[in-house]
Amino acid sequence: MIPRHQTVLFVVLFAASAIMGVLLWNQLRRAHDRLLRGEDSAPTQAPQVAPAEQATLMVANDADNTVQPRILTLPLPQNPEARARAILGRLLDLYAAPESTHPVPGGASSIAEVFLLPVAGASGSGTPDGPELAVVNLTGAFAASHPSGLETESLTVLSICETLNANLPRVTEVRFLVDGQPRASLAGHADLMRTYLTNENTAAVGGGRQ
Amino acid sequence: MVLDAAHGGDDPGGRLGGDTEKGFTLAFSIRLRSLLAARGFAVVMTRDSDSSIDSDRRADIVDHAGSQACLSLHGSMSGSGVHLLVSSLAPIQETRLLPWKTAQAAWVLRSVSLAGVINSALSHASVPVTLGRMALPAIDSMTCPAVAVEIAPDRSSDSEAPSNLDNADYQARVADALAAALVEWRSESREGHQP
After folding, report:
1. Given phi > 0 = left and psi -120 to 50 = alpha, else beta, which region is B89?
2. Which residue of B has its CA nearest to A158?
């Protein structure tokens, strides 16, 4: 025989549990509704894994055959090779955007890798401040979709070389690969077999609209 | 005078609307050859059919022709008007023996001068022009004044309607201006006004 006071206690505790369950369910629904009401439908900002810094992009313009500096603030990694890749990726994002002054499809994913190596035989080579050769590995898709032409291809090459030199002053020479292999030209015109000297590019660009 | 129609054979060059660059450059060089012949030029072409020809062979033809100048003809759908490009080699003094890959260095000042004459003629014909310098493997081995002439559609704001590359009037305007420039260049050569 169960004592009467235990029966009463069981009923009271059962009722309290039921009431707490209902209250908890109700709170859960309210919190869910509150979250839905406060939800922002705008795209979330990409996580920044590096502090934002200023970078100088040398942006090509097909209309007057020039390369002009444009300063942007970007999250840039500290590793020089990753930094070079991030900067060149931003440059190619500009070219892939609508209303680009130098339309080239592909964007940032067109830069597969950037390697920085000491310049062989140069004075100071191998020292912390010595000159460096940048090897830019482009994707085959980028080369295949690049518009064909002497001017447009040379502007792409020159803007990449000058952008590297503007942000990584130790880069004095640039070579190009496509899918990790040497390639004769970008899209039939710009020579990709040669080593580009960043100081000669400034002279080479000296054209412009007449 | 040497006219070099770029690309050819298994190298089609870029796509120019419904045409290939190799077809456009060949047709344009034949048109320009007629205009130059009518003005008394002896014209040599690096190709007059759809044949493959590499950059060394092009330079070889030019160097053996002993020509006053060479125009390397290209076409593009990028940019606007005519793009004049000269070798980016640094100038050097002419010597009896020149390295094959950089022979143009001894002629690059005269090439710049030729580009200036062509620029004036095209501007006079209201064709927009851009000037530039770049590594040009075929031209870098040529031992005469040489300019790459890349013809793009006229997208300038002052033109009444954008001219496509297959527009006969636009092609005629560019070809006439190039012929006039080469006549001017020849007369300057005779008078010794060139560098």
Report:
1. beta
2. B134
Task: State whether B134 and A188 contact (CB < 8 Å).
Answer: no
Amino acid identity at B168: A
Q: Which residues of B touch A (CB under 8 A)?
A: 7, 11, 13-15, 21, 74-80, 83, 85, 88, 90, 119, 123, 128-137, 148, 150, 152
Residue of B104, B134, B154 best to disrupt the A interface, most CBs of A under 10 A: B134
Q: Which CATH number characterizes residue B180's domain?
A: 3.40.630.40
Within chain B, how many helices (H) and strands (E) appear? 4, 8
DSSP A33-77: HHHHHT---SPPPPPP-S-EEEEEEEEEETTTTEEEEEEEEEE--
Nearest chain A CA: its distance from B135 CA (Å): 7
Binning pLDDT at 50, 70 and 90, where does residue A37 land? low
Which residue in A65, A66, A151 has the most chain B C-beta atoms within 10 A of its own C-beta, making it the best mutation to test that interface? A151
Residues of chain A with Cβ-Cβ distance to B128 below 8 Å are 209-210
- Mean pLDDT throughout B134-141? 90
This complex has an ipTM of 0.89
Task: Label residue A104 by pLDDT band (50, 70, 90).
Answer: very high
Check residue A210 and give its pLDDT: 46
CB B109: neighbour CB atoms within 10 A? 15
**pLDDT (tens digit, 9 = 90+) per residue, B4-15?**
999 999 999 998
Take residue B123 and report the two structure tokens written for it: 């501007």
Under an 8 A CB cutoff, do A149 and B77 touch? Answer: yes
Look up the pTM and report it: 0.81
Sign of CA dihedral A158, B53, B101, A192: positive
